[in-house]
Amino acid sequence: MSSNAEHTYRIGVVGPSDLVSLVKRVAALEFTDHLVVPLIYRNEAQAVEVISARPDVDALLFTGVIPYTLAQAAGVLTEPAAYIDYTGATLYGALVELMSAGHDPACISIDTLARPLVVESLSHVGIATTDITTAEYRRGTDVRRYAQFHRDHARTQPGAVAITCVRSVYELIREDIYTIRLAPAVASVRTALETVTMELAGRISSDAQVVLGMIELPEPDDRLTGDIRALAGSLFPVGPASYVLVTTRGVLAQHTCDWTVMPLLEQLSQRHNWVRIGLGVGRSAADAEALARRAVERCRTAGPFTAIVSVGSGRDFVITETEPDPTRTEEPLSLHVAARRAGLSRTTLLKLEAAVAAHPGGEVTAADIAAALGIEPRSARRTLKQLERSGLAQPVGTVGSGAGRPAVRYAVRLES
User: Fold this and answer.
1) Are 186 and 205 in contact (CB under 8 A)?
2) 53 φ, ψ (degrees, to nearest 5)
3) Each residue's pLDDT tens digit, 269-323
4) In angstroms, what CA-CA distances link 414 with 24, 218, 280, 338, 362?
5) Of 389, 344, 256, 349, which Cα lies nearest the Cα of 410?
6) Which of 66, 217, 273, 404 could form a disulfide with 55 if both were Cys (CB 3.0 to 4.6 A apart)?
């Protein structure tokens, strides 16, 4: 990868300080357009706490499977995530160290790794696996249980060697048993970084997918061009009151807060007796058009004010608006203007107002918005950018210190 003044991705690396430093060195040499954000813990049990307090990152890379599994079980993984595999090059490096010290590689105990992978790796280099014992990581397995596993093996196998993937286990047994702590080989680190990079690139590619929308109204609407400004797309009339919209998936996901609301539908429902919006997301314009046609047909039976987003594979997201209540008191003009200017729904704006009011000076971060709206941090960052472009939010500083990029703090003003 080529060096670049702007970092393409911010990768949060979760692990003990020595392994995080190793990943950082590899990234500095071979992934020069990445920024490594160290997320360091002293033991694996702290992994969830460290991740919960993380700064703004695009992906997470774990230095082992245990912290990755703990984070996955806790439901704190909102970004693409991967962990470094300790089989292959990493395990071979430990075997070389073992044999160099005069120990028998056929009489070892190995924790964390799955036995089939260990047997495959050792058999590949001609090492007998009959006397090798393994303890694969399973959720709930603690450090002391692994330590006891290695001690039990050492009692039955004279001259046995313990190989551990867990620093806490190494510290518990190294005084009693000859122990090697597996540290990821450079090749294993490189592979993990490539995996995370490809997943991120795939997500960006997905955001660039074509979206074709079909809008049907009971009468022509000369204000529609202004309404779709938030979608950064192109509008083409194809009939007296029918229109085709072209945009991209990333913009649409932002506009709909990941397929949960449709500000455009809400705006049109204030002016028309019925509204149908069918949106198709495809790898090509032809795919998107076919999905959009199917979506708008479904709108005919789904209610008078309906938008359907079809992303293929039978997955449709249905968004509906209730019929306007003639007795409802109108929203304050400031909220109406803010909604139109930002391309957000009034419901979203009301939630944003409450979130802003709960913070001193009306200053919030993406994490605050994500919690208030119940959306992912990535979508919250998009919403703040949308408000910023509309002149309703302004960056005023940052929150956090230390390694990595701190979160941006915004002053939000929703008044007209």
Assistant:
1) no
2) -100, 15
3) 889 999 999 999 987 888 899 999 999 999 988 889 999 999 876 788 888 876 5
4) 42, 32, 32, 6, 10
5) 389
6) 404
